[in-house]
Design goal:
InterPro entries: Aldolase_TIM, TAL/FSA, Transaldolase_3B, Transaldolase_3B/F6P_aldolase, Transaldolase_AS, TSA/FSA_arc/bac. By secondary structure, the chain is α/β, with parallel strands linked by helices. It has a single domain (2-216), classed as TIM Barrel, CATH 3.20.20.70. The chain has helices at 10-18, 29-34, 40-53, 67-80, 92-104, 116-125, 134-139, 144-158, 172-181, 190-195, 200-216; strands at residues 2-6, 24-26, 58-61, 84-89, 108-113, 129-132, 163-166, 185-188. It has an eight-stranded parallel beta barrel with strand order 1-2-3-4-5-6-7-8, surrounded by seven helices. Strand 3, helix 4 (67-80) and strand 4 form a beta-alpha-beta unit. Helix 5 packs parallel to helix 6 (116-125), helix 6 (116-125) runs parallel beside helix 8 and helix 8 packs parallel to helix 9 (172-181). The chain is globular, with a radius of gyration of 19 Å. The protein binds erythose-4-phosphate (E4P). Residues 6, 26, 28, 111, 131, 133, 135-136, 167-168, 187 line the site of erythose-4-phosphate.
Length: 219
Amino acid sequence: MKFFIDTANLSEIQEAYDLGVLDGVTTNPSLMAKEGISGDEAVKAHYKAICNIVDDKVSAEVIATDFDGMIREGKELAKIDDKIVVKIPMIKEGVKAIKYFHSEGIRTNCTLVFSAGQALLAAKAGASYLSPFIGRLDDISFDGLELIQQIVHIYRTYDFQTEVLAASIRHTMHLIKCAEIGADVVTCPLKVITGLLNHPLTDKGLAQFLADHAKAAGK
Ligand code: E4P
């Protein structure tokens, strides 16, 4: 299972990478805007900086919603670095663009996925990754994890090569359940990755070990 971080913040990406468990990065236009990144050249430079930190894939999202625009932007993004995956929204023009990029050997991540039907379309079009949004489904009282389970089952049944990249992860239990279900990748905020470290019995046990050691050493 791969861990991606869902941010455009360079220090958070570096911190997750330094932990030794980070594979790649996903971004979206909102995350880029949060970092104050705008303008073609600044956007490209920022993606390059992200690619320079991590070893695996970096998803960079197109802004265009028409086929020609998505192809133009996607090609520009793909030129930045071999690690770039072009992120395309799950809309009709997006499905066509995914099919086009697949035939050109350019990797895609189909984003804003909320149903098994959309997942089927993306896989048929040849998406490299599929991003179902768990948290946003939970927000409207649909079970996001159930969708991941359904998609994993469908993809395995038909041996689709599209990787299930569980997105919109809000807490550690989302991540752990995705691991149980068999999602190929999870993308989450830094606090969810570092949250996996926490256990009160670890803290208590370590404090006891250190205290016993100090006592034995006569400190
Ligand atoms: C995934 O690629 C998206 O950028 C992201 O996971 C969305 O998460 P959010 O619902 O927390 O904004």
